[in-house]
């Protein structure tokens, strides 16, 4: 809303609109290249989104400061600007602080399909130590470190989950054939017997490699 509002405010007279819209189109293409091609090579996470939101907030303050029609023109009144700066700094610092799990991150992967982290959970006693995969705030699987628990199904594929109940039922009837959309960490393979067949359908090559 802010950026479109500023574009409308900056729109020139009709005889200059062709060049204006050409520059807008160049900006869109440049932004797409930066986000789609450059950012994945520079940032481990979606930092460009966070920086973009922060930069937009900074733009709001610049506009309020320089616009003669603004009630906050030239930094007055001070009390309003103090409140505005506080509302800018606090959420900005929170956004940058929550880009990834706080500790134990072993690896970060980002490609066209998104970002995920592999991190170590080392709390609750050694029997609960595990490595986990997190993407978009969701844990898509974890594997225990203890050898006797490594093949235990976890997270939303646990034995009492819908998938767990179904696979345990069919495994009791004999070997099964399953097509799984999305690999994650391959957790449902824990239900397979020697002669069971599971085919995973996964489009993200980094997920396949990590699993």
Describe this structure in words.
- The protein is α+β, with helices and mostly antiparallel strands.
- The chain folds into 2 domains: 2-97, no CATH class; 105-210, no CATH class.
- It has 6 helices and 6 strands; from the N terminus they run H-H-H-H-E-E-E-E-H-E-E-H.
- The strands form 2 sheets. Strands 1-2-3-4 form a 4-stranded antiparallel beta sheet, with no helix packed on it. It has a two-stranded parallel sheet with strand order 5-6.
Task: Briefly summarize what is shown.
This protein is of the alpha+beta class and 211 residues long. The chain has 6 helices and 6 strands. The chain folds into 2 domains: 2-97, no CATH class; 105-210, no CATH class.
């Amino acid at each position: 809303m802010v950026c479109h509002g500023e574009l409308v405010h900056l729109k020139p007279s009709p005889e200059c609109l062709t060049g204006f819209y050409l520059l807008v189109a160049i900006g869109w293409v440049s932004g797409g290249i930066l986000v789609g091609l450059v950012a994945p090579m520079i940032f481990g996470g979606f930092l460009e989104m966070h920086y973009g939101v922060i930069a937009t907030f900074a733009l709001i303050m610049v506009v309020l400061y320089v616009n003669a029609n603004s009630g906050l023109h030239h930094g007055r009144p001070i009390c309003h600007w103090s409140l505005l700066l506080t509302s800018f700094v606090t959420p900005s610092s929170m956004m940058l602080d929550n880009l990834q799990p706080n500790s134990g991150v072993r690896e970060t992967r980002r490609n066209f399909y998104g970002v995920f982290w592999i991190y170590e959970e080392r709390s609750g006693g050694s029997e609960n130590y595990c490595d986990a995969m997190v993407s978009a705030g969701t844990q898509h699987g974890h594997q225990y470190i203890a050898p006797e628990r490594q093949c235990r199904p976890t997270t939303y594929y646990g034995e009492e989950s819908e998938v767990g109940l179904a696979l345990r039922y069919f495994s009791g009837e004999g070997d099964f054939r399953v097509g799984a959309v999305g690999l994650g960490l391959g957790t449902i393979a824990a239900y397979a017997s020697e002669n069971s067949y599971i085919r995973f359908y996964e489009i993200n090559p980094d997920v396949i490699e990590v699993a």
